[in-house]
Design a protein that fits this description.
Helix Hairpins; 5 helices
Length: about 120
């Protein structure tokens, strides 16, 4: 049992990061903390894909003599694209939070909800 846990430590790290990110998004009312929680969740998905795409003893997919096991570069390329999209999404979310702060003078979700319903 202990070998199973230690042998799959990267998946346990993914699970812990996912739960931390999900808990942060659900439990916090601060919009910045929600964005940070989403980023933590996103990083856990990156780790999962990279863990699945890693081949022990695999070489780069370039035909060479003596190489029998190749590593598939597709998961790594997809994660690189996802990182760029994640950074752009985070930048947009932070820009929206700045606009919300200018309009409502707060970034707390409950206060914004109350201000909307009091009008």
């Amino acid at each position: 049992m202990m070998d199973f846990i230690i042998g799959h430590y990267n998946y346990w790290i993914v699970i812990v990061l996912m739960m931390v990110g999900l808990y942060t998004v659900i439990s916090r009312g601060n919009l910045i903390k929600k964005i940070i929680g989403l980023n933590i969740f996103q990083v856990s998905v990156f780790f999962l894909y990279i863990s699945l795409g890693t081949v022990e003893g695999g070489a780069a997919p370039i035909i060479a003599e003596g190489v029998k096991v190749y590593s598939n570069p597709l998961p790594h390329v997809l994660i690189l694209t996802a990182i760029v999209v994640g950074v752009a999404t985070t930048a947009l979310a932070l820009a929206l939070v700045v606009r919300i702060k200018e309009s409502y003078s707060t970034i707390e979700e409950d206060e914004i909800h109350n201000l909307d319903h009091s009008l």
